[in-house]
Amino acid sequence: MERTVESDHAQISYSVEGPADAPALLLSNSIGTTRDLWARQTAALTHTFRVIRYDTRGHGDSSVPDGDYTLEQLGRDAIAILDQERVTSAHVCGLSLGGVTAMWLGLKVPDRVSSLVLANTGARLRDQEFWSERIALVRSQGMAALADKAVTTWFSEAFRERDPDTVHDFKAMLQDCSPGGYAGCCAALRDADLREEISGIRCSTLVIGGSADNATPLALAEFMRDQISGAQLVTLDAAHLSNVEQSEAFTDALMEFLATAAA
Questions:
Q1: What pLDDT is recorded for position 196?
Q2: Residue 89 region, left (φ>0) first, then alpha (ψ -120 to 50), else beta?
Q3: Strand (E) positions, 33-182?
Q4: Which among 187, 1, 12, 178 is positioned nearest to 83, based on CA atoms?
Q5: How open is the CA angle 61-187-194, to the nearest 5 degrees?
Q6: What is the pLDDT of residue 240?
Q7: Range 179-195 average pLDDT
Q8: Which domains does the chain have, with CATH numbers?
Q9: How many angstroms separate the CA atoms of 103 and 116, rounded?
């Protein structure tokens, strides 16, 4: 079911699938993608969970407010969804930018988070110069300037050869992204640094990394595992979008973790 919620001058678009009385699972997408990022997981998850997928502000069917966005805004967008759905506490799974948002939730509103899954992400992604250059690029040349390079980061060479149709679909998804919305989220990543805070996360946490992920290398996943008490690390043979490239292994790891976390 498609729904929207207003949050800090933005309309956030989301969908809810699965039993209404099941534990809630909130899925947060990576920069440059939409809630369709999770299409390969949804069917399995909706047997057990009330799955809430949403388009991060500036992406997909959510609105594109002008200017830079902040990590706090992204986190409060997620809270607005939970409030509207009357979800007291949800399991939260995020990939890349979505993982940073998930960490913020685990730190700032721990009572709303039952468990965390942090996939292909890090407490600090790149540096300010990288994101400032990325913002300047998309604002001057549009999303097409990123598309070819992005898919080589998102997917390994072996996957690109094996499944060119999926690669094409995700390239199109990126090209359809609003340059303003993408740049706004780049600003959130430019300014976000949770390295000194993530040891404060107290809920059950699964970290998922990709052995071929050059965007968020395994060192970032290992740092999160070491900083978050009791965190588990699963490494998949994949590049950045590990839930797509290794969809079955990702779903299995997620379901196994959630079965314990939801018990």
A1: 98
A2: beta
A3: 50-54, 90-95, 113-119
A4: 12
A5: 105
A6: 98
A7: 98
A8: 2-261 (3.40.50.1820)
A9: 8
